[in-house]
Amino acid sequence: MGTDRYISPLSERYASGEMQYIFSEDKKFRTWRRLWIALAETEKELGLDITSEQIDEMKAHQDDINYDVARAREKEVRHDVMSHVYAFGMQCPKAKPIIHLGATSCYVGDNTDIIIMTEGLKLVRKKLINVIAKLYRFADEYKNLPTLAFTHFQPAQPTTVGKRASLWLQDFTYDLEDLDYVINNMKLLGCKGTTGTQASFLELFEGDLDKVDQIDKLIASKVGFDKCVSVSGQTYTRKIDMRVINVLGSIAASASKMAQDIRLLQHLKEVEEPFEKKQIGSSAMAYKRNPMRSERICSLARYVLIDTLNPAITDVSQWFERTLDDSANKRLSIPEGFLATDGILDLCLNVVDGLVVYPKVINKRLMSELPFMATENIMMDAVKAGGDRQELHERIRELSMEAGKNVKVEGKENNLLELIAADPAFHLSLEDLEKSMDPQKYVGCSAHQVEKFLNDVVKPILDENKEDLGLQAEINV
Where does CATH 1.20.200.10 sit in the chain? Predict the structure, then answer.
């Protein structure tokens, strides 16, 4: 039965349950309560008149949130944080006087955003590691399989299937470097007060700067962080949101590049994404096998790339110590950026794990173009047989044009080798020429480059992250 309300496709179709929970209301409000407990504990440790009984009461109700009370209160006061302070106080009558003491709304709002984004980044990292692992295996398996390379989507010097995959893989390793930098530099807001001056805490602690200086460090340690921003207005700088979404955008770009290549290869019938036994490619054309998952990667990636503009514009739009034009935008752009990236990585895991390679189709296309690629070697052999390099170069150019015309205009097979063999200037038989048609002669250092890249760059990453490997993605549609 259909619903009568809009439901985001990110939750219904694309993002995993794990990522959805990280950005759920339940996760957010439980984290608010963790932060209020951390604040009360810190204030008690620094000498304020807060009892263990009050803190124990708060801990007893950390997770059983009375949402009905909070919702009813928000309708009255139009303030989400104060509504939940009120609801928490209703459950904790002894602790009620000290809940949120000295803090402003951003204490729970901004610190929760950092905690949640960090958890989201760690889940993204786990999935990215597994995409890297699957591409590692694919590149290694096909490092020696010659294939026609393209520049400008025009036939170019051959490469190997594994070498091409290593280009996708390298992009993801760069993303991992950037992601680790962002994760390792995530900092809480701490408890800075209404304009970031900590004036309320200086008052609470009667001018004791040493105690005020300890507040942020103690709170951070209680919620799993080791640092807070050094200075702030009421909020942490929105530059952090910009940094976070930018790294998601970079991952989305890498995924889209790979997926677009796979879409083109599927058109060429050389490589296909997984296609399930009962999957329907088209409502009209029953024979079709559309690269729907790769297309979906590109579609979601486009969304994430555009979404990177949201925190950038928000960052430059903040007035002085804070304005509220960030709030509604953050509620949309941050979760949706994460949910879409999560969906992209699940699709990447599924696609790469099931890529189907068709060596015979690959070889047929390569061999149809290889005579053109081989002309330099052929010319060198003809020079060794006594020919003039400059004359031979001009003659090969003319014969290549003739063979190209046969292929493109006449629809015939590429007969360049036959044309060269029939030309007395080359002193080479068709048999001699066919010996030069081994594709392995034209792929250069492809296999060696793949091996070196996998061993020097990728294997250390996988060895360092063994505990995160083995993830399998489940996609909904």
Answer: 105-183+236-276+287-358
Which residues are tagged catalytic? 152, 282
Residues with Cβ < 8 Å from 204, sequence gap 6 or more? Answer: 43, 48, 101, 102
d(CA 33, CA 44): 16
pLDDT tens digits along 67-96:
999 999 999 999 999 999 999 999 999 999
Separation CA 397–CA 372 (nearest Å): 10
Task: Tell me the two tokens of residue 153.
Answer: 């989507």
Domain 21-98 fold is Fumarase C; Chain B, domain 1 (1.10.275)
Per DSSP bridges, beta strands 154-160 and 146-151 are antiparallel
Q: Are 161 and 272 in contact (CB under 8 A)?
A: no
Specify the pLDDT at position 473. 81
| Average pLDDT value for the chain | 93
- For the chain, residues classed under CATH 1.10.40.30 are 375-436
State the alpha helices, DSSP H only, in 409-475. 416-421, 430-435, 446-453, 459-464
CA distance 472 to 260: 22
pLDDT of res. 404: 86
* 359's tokens: 């060596």
Other CB atoms within 10 A of residue 431 CB: 8
Considering only CA atoms, give the Rg of the chain: 31
The per-residue b/e assignment along 92-126, b for 16 or more CB within 10 angstroms, e otherwise, is: beebbebbbebbbbbbbbbbbbbbbbbbbbebbbb
Is residue 258 within 8 Å of residue 348, measured between CB atoms?
yes
Number of C-beta neighbours around residue 162 at 10 A = 25
Distances (CA, A) of 143 to 137, 157, 359, 443: 10, 16, 13, 10
Burial (CB count <10 Å: 0-12, 13-18, 19+), residue 382: buried
Residues 6 or more apart whose CB falls under 8 angstroms from that of 229 comprise: 187, 188, 189, 190, 236, 237
Could you give the CA distance from residue 246 to residue 395 in angstroms, rounded to a whole number?
Answer: 53
What one-letter code names the amino acid at 265? Answer: L
Which architecture, in CATH terms, is 105-183+236-276+287-358?
Answer: Up-down Bundle (1.20)
Distance of alpha carbon 319 from alpha carbon 321, whole angstroms: 6
End-to-end CA distance of the chain: 18
Residue 241, exposed/middle/buried by CB under 10 A (0-12, 13-18, 19+)?
buried
- DSSP-based three-state secondary structure for 393: helix
> Which pair of structure tokens corresponds to residue 206?
């009667």
- Topology of domain 375-436 in CATH is Ribonucleotide Reductase Protein R1; domain 1 (1.10.40)
Q: State which residues of the chain have pLDDT below 70.
A: 1-2, 276-288
Q: Determine the Cα–Cα distance for residues 135 and 129; give it in Å rounded to an integer.
A: 10
pLDDT at 277 (0 to 100): 45
